[in-house]
Fold Calcineurin-like phosphoesterase domain-containing protein.
Amino acid sequence: MLRDLGVINGPVLLFGGPYSNAQATRALLGEALARGITGGQMICTGDIVAYGAAPQICVELIRQSGAAVVAGNCEKQIGAGALECGCGFEEGSTCDMLSLGWYPYARAHVNEAARAWMRACPDIVSFRHQGARYAVIHGGVTDVARFVWPNDDAAVFTEEWDAIEDQIGPVDHVVAGHCGLAFIRETARGLWLNPGVIGLPPHDGRQQTRFGLLDGGEMRIHRLRYDAEAAAAEMQRAGLTQGYHTGLLTGYWPSEEILPEDLRSPSLASG
């Protein structure tokens, strides 16, 4: 399902993965307000609900903002009432086991209205900006939970680009999410832009998360400061202590398994 936003002439705020982190979501909306950016100029790459303690609140905040939202795997799974997150973690891996803690909480703490809204989220959002056409997806079109990394082979980007254009026609640039890392990759077809996620740090040892601002045809990646201590404390009170709560404070994910070897932290043991 495609949602076409038409032409957006002003700045476009791009973000992903609020991850049930109400403090980060409110901080992101505060950034938009301070920059004079309205809901019609905001696009989320999905996964509003995930690791944090405030899934329903985050859904309500994003819906009230008027931002366009692409369906992430979490929207698809929770919307369908599925029993697992569909994140693409290898079965039996640390991340897969951690999901047994946070996913049931997330699924149980959104109401039917939120689930119905998730089911209506499009798979692809498109818009035009500064004469170029953009497609916004979650992970991939071949697989919504595909992890596309900044150092992947060119063939990965070509495969996904072909899949996008098979569905919606030619595009000049692609905006994607899911992997949790913000990056800009030049490809043979155009730019692959990942603005990162706002609900969890990008495994760099800092509490700040990331969002992107597209203006004048150029995206810049910005740090998002928010009250990580309050978000972590809420997770503890909710019993969400599988490791993501400490990740908010340390800036490191509880497991590096999903990361390619050369994107892992040299100071941490894998897994």
Remarks:
- The CA atoms of residues 87 and 145 lie 5 Å apart.
